[in-house]
Amino acid sequence: xxxFISQILELLTISPGNLVYYVVLVFAxxxxxxxxxxxxxxxxxxQARRALVGLGVLLAAQVIMFVFSGLGxxxxxxxxxxxxxxxxxxxxxxxxWITWVYAFPEPxxxxxxxxxxxxxxxxxxxxxSLLTWQPQITTVTYNQTADDLFWQIGSILAALIGISxxxxxxxxxxWYGIVLLGIGALGHVGHLLVASDGNYSGIVRLAYxxxxxxxxxxxxxxxxxxxxxxxxxRQAAQKQDDLGERRRYSxxxxxxxxxxxxxxxxxxxxxxxxxxxAIAQTMLSDLCFMIYLNDSNNQLAIAGGYDLIxxxxxxxxxxxxxxxxxxxxxxxxxxxxxxxxxxxxADIKGLSDILGLTNPGHLLSVPILTxxxxxxxxxxxxxxxxxxxxxxxxxxxxxxxxxSLVPIIKRSQKVNKMEAQSSEALLQVADLERRVRxxxxxxxxxxxxxxxxxxxxxxxxxxxxxxxxxxxEQLQLENxxxxxxxxxxxxxxxxxxIEQELRTTLxxxxxxxxxxMEANMKTRELEKGHVAVKSTxxxxxxxxxxxxxxxPLSSIVGYTDLLLGESVGILGALQRKFVERVKASTERIRSxxxxxxxxxxxxxxLNDLNPEAVDLNAIxxxxxxxxxxxxREKNISMHLELPKTLSPIHADREALQQxxxxxxxxxxxxxxxxxxxxxxxxxxxxxxxxxxxxxVTDSGGGIxxxxxxxxxxxxxxxxxxxxxxxxDTGVGLSIAKTLTEAQHGRIxxxxxxxxxxTFSVLLPIAxxxxxxxxxxxxxxx
Length: 781
Hints:
The chain is of the alpha+beta class.
């Protein structure tokens, strides 16, 4: 080695020459850091931000070494005891972070964790090396120790591993990193080949003084593509200025807002495609996508897209967050993202695989944030054909657009949710109709089987009865002939024989007559039992059907009330009309179901009537309270005419309550808005029996005379239209009639055309029915 080079290397290992070494390294790293900061402010790329982090760590390490070297130069610390191990450790530390900053320009948690762990391992090795190095008790320099050999081999291995990682990942600007690490590795190899005394390696320091200025190229690794695109953009802008055209995208927000308003008026399912088309045309983006966040932790949904080059809409789909980690993270955290096409991020490869493109181009994504800073999704712009670079101005402009999308997206989501709920309700209605048909078929089948079994048994019994009757008639005829002597011939029978045969014949006649009476009784009992069994079975089947119907009907009514209340979104006029029809039909079905239950359970209730002394005042109060809602809704005036004292009525409490409720409900339904209903109670005496007369009068316009016989007919509405002047739309009046007659009372109606109708109920007072239970009160039919 020449004396000149040897002198230079020696100067780098002694003070103040070693300070010059650290000054050069600090200056190189600081210059690269300044350039990276400027580049980050201009582009705001995440790669530039990571370059700032890596260069900042390197600068901190070199500043620490410069400070300790300065303290050793001033004899404030023992330089030989601390600086030799620190010099080797911080060189390995620098190799680790140079590899990190060059090989992993995009966020990578495994790489970040590995860099931190290796740095901690280096610091641990430094601590052990400081403990084993004792310069005060040895005359051997640090270059001649095993620790130095360990550090040199570790530095070479770290540099080779970094070069291998760069070859595998192939990031942009990889050759600069390879050259930097290669020069450092050559310095360490030279140190091992050329033995030298001292505590520091001049060859290694010279190598890193040459290598560290290469860090100035680190912030510019994406500048080539960007500068070309910016140059093309400037040329295009200049050309447009020369032609008097506008910029690459409209700067007038009103233009874009008008397009969004137009898109919002379309079908909700096509809103996303209309929005992406408007954005693509406004931003002159090759591809534009609308991305929504799903409830799932692993999926993002593409609601729609637009290809500006082919002028074609793109269908939606799902995205796995694992294939686009940076994009998914930015959307979830509500942050914008810009990424160059040369990025080594997994997002570029993931989008290439999803879209079937060699390279999706430069990427720009902005979140769609609500005023509460909640992320609804985002807008994604790609430039695979034009290779357009997205600037900070593009990002700000697109963010302004995304803010105006929030009300449109929320309205679209509400409409979609309402349509889904409406479809669910319609499916439930269809399922309910199917179940009603199935239950009706089962009911008809059961009725047919009961009728068939009863018919066979009745036919057999009637046949036996007819045969018995025929035999008895024949025997009676023969008996009559014997008594009259028409069949006797002279000398044929003796008197004793004739008397004996006559007695035997009469016994047979008596026996057959008894058998006939028993057969008649069994026939009547069978007829009654058959009717009772049939009625009971029908009641049970209908009650079961009604119970099955109640739950889905309540569910449908609940859904319709939720939709009509607009708690899940605003309904259009046509949608509200349809939902109101569904609710009205459902309420009608529920009313018919209640009527079915009342009819089928009426027979059982008649058998369970428990007549007792009932206070009519309490019955009237309960009935008025039950029908008060109907009265308030129509603003009906109620007039009561009651005597000062009312005698108790001998009747069933529940039955009397139902009679009065049905009459008041009918009157309230028949009476028009702001009409009048009168309830009058008085006593009446007929045939020495005291009765209570209850009359309910409405102002519904009266009932035609030809319709009066059908007023109390059960289920007449199944085959006939509603009767004018009658408010009952079910079977309430027929039930009132049945319950009244079951308690030895009478019910009738009087009507005056264009005025109203009066329904009267006549019931015996307490004690009257017990003493004269068979006395029938007189009343109009």
